[in-house]
Amino acid sequence: MALMTQTALDSTPATGSPLLKRGLAEMLKGGVIMDVVTAEQARIAEDAGAVAVMALERVPADIRAQGGVARMSDPDLIDQIVESVSIPVMAKARIGHFVEAQVLQELGVDYIDESEVLSPADYVNHIDKHSFTVPFVCGATNLGEALRRLAEGAAMIRSKGEAGTGDVSEATKHIRTIRKQIADLQATFRANPDELFVAAKELQAPYDIVREVAETGKLPVVLFTAGGVATPADAAMMMQLGADGVFVGSGIFKSGDPARRAEAIVAATAQYDDPAAIAQASRGLGEAMVGINVGDLPAPHRLAERGW
Amino acid sequence: MSILTTAPAPRIAVLALQGGVAEHVAMLESLGAEALVVRSPRSLAAAAADGLVLPGGESSTVDRLLRRFGMREPLIELLDGGLPVLGTCAGLITLAEVIRDPAPGQQSLGLIPMTVRRNAFGRQVDSATETLDSALGPVKAAFIRAPEVVSVRAGVEILARRGTGVDGDGPIVAVGTGQAIALSFHPELTGDTTFHGEFLRRVRAAKLDGVQGR
Asked: Which residues catalyse the reaction (chain B) (predicted)?
């Protein structure tokens, strides 16, 4: 498993390499990726300074409220959103649904999110992401899950949080868990590198990737946070906890003044370590999304538990 | 960063509002410069930089944040004073005089008399690595949803084209003026130090001449 092999560089253009897939995510760092369900929302997101939009038929809060099987969006909707903005467009495929992924690649989306927010299509296998030219982002609740996704070819990881709730507590738990497990792995590498074999067994991830993370003390890809981010302070907290950027789903277009809130979350994400700037961004935003406390969700409705 | 060198390391401000900042910082430090990330007018002033790097990212986002945080005017002032600058990808767009296809309301700093086009080579599936036959020799380049320079005006030197030498007719992807270097691609991702090395050479020369603005 040669994850970070430098692609051969010559005068013939080469596409779809890990360097290019991961490279686009590097360019999104420090930014906010916003869920949008119409071309109009996509333009509002772009105007507010989003680094990318996620094209969806329903935001997670509505998927949660309406129930039923959630699938890839209609290609017409994705086309409209791709046409309406100049920033990158992402779209979601169901976990394991490699044909939805083939369709999304054909439509020219810039990133595919193999997402637990949609209903899984395969309860055993995720998509073999190496076989695509388009890059993938995948969710993770812990380091082992993140590394399994990397082994399958993911070029970007987002901590899952609990989408569609407006409750940031799960996002906090997942980013803290991933960061702590990386720190523990690095400590193991420094003290007792021979224990990394067992660490790989416990993480249920390939040894080579486990060793790479242990040596460098970070994931070899960009790590964003998602799930329940609803305010500028939520976004800044995720950044202070070590996220490279944030996904905001229902939190923007389920709020009272989406354009203003979107711009405020972008500003707070950029100046996440400046409380005065976050305070300024937090003023006069109108109502935040009402939300649901994660503790009130019955277990079958917890999306973060999808994926393995 | 050897303390044995006689001249102090050049101080390079790296604009860190959004995008691929860490890769530039690492490359600048590997070449003996001191990299200072700036994301506010205060940190920009405090850097007292000898040179400036505008990294890749989303140019529309960076423009919006430059204006919101009041950094556009101080940057223009520093550039008007002659501060050497290196821009990659979104940084190239930010330095251009004219953006042919801006996002609604998008502005640039207008330093380099050229016209650029965003996402000129297609979407992410068209992003590619390629070795360029540049004016400085072969350069390993990563093009990621990259812009191109559509046209240049007086005083702008073409430093690389895609698919041809600088005298060919390929799309222009690297340009220079006495003060600025702007690249469509990301040498900071491929690890090619050619242009960063040239930029630091110019910064050091400007510092010796004492011509750079403050």
From this structure: 89, 186, 188
